[in-house]
Write a structure and sequence with these properties.
With about 220 residues, the protein is of the alpha/beta class. About 40% of the residues lie in helices and about 20% in strands. A 7-stranded mixed sheet has the order 3-2-1-4-5-7-6, sandwiched between helices. Helix 2 runs parallel beside helix 3. The protein is globular, with a radius of gyration of 17 Å.
Amino acid sequence: MDIIESLYYKIFRWASPRGEHTFSAGLLQDRLREKARVYSLELEGKILEVGCGEGFFLRALARSVNRLSLFGVDVDEGHLKLGKILLKGNNRVNISLSRQDARVLAFKDHSFDVVVCINVFYNLDSWETVCRVMEEMARVCKPKGQMIFDFRVSGNPVFNLKDRWARYYDKTLTHSLSSYHPAKIRGLLSRLDLKVVKSEHLGGLLGMITPIRIYKVYRP
């Protein structure tokens, strides 16, 4: 297992964009953040990122769009501390980071025009937790607002095996990574009355082999 762990971290360091070898870095993670950024370019108002980590997505979006007020929440104080350090000198006073539990967000109903959650759901410990976070995201999203998020979709046996064993070679994990059947995801969206605007696999060649689907949904 030590050999697998060593190989994993070598690949991680090679794949991490811009040399950012932090918890939230990684090739697929960065591709998802970029797709979410593109999804967000035409949107306006207040944007909340749930599970913002060190703020990679928010900083990238801030560089692209000036008209947005950006907020990020994460449960890990260490990630937020690093995110605030990386924000220094950015001159983006409309980026606010705070420590919050995504299951009980401290925002009023209908507070945000857009709610984003990328690279988070596959890290959560249960479907019940995923549902609770999605409910909170829908609660704080304004009527006619939009939500952007991703799921690891079950069905690829290679990735299913990798996810099941992830906690043995990735010391940052305390449990296996989670993927879900598309029908289960559709059922959750229907229960929350969320209408799919766009849904696609991660782009390019990787989209043919990786079970990652990103969603952009509309809240009536």
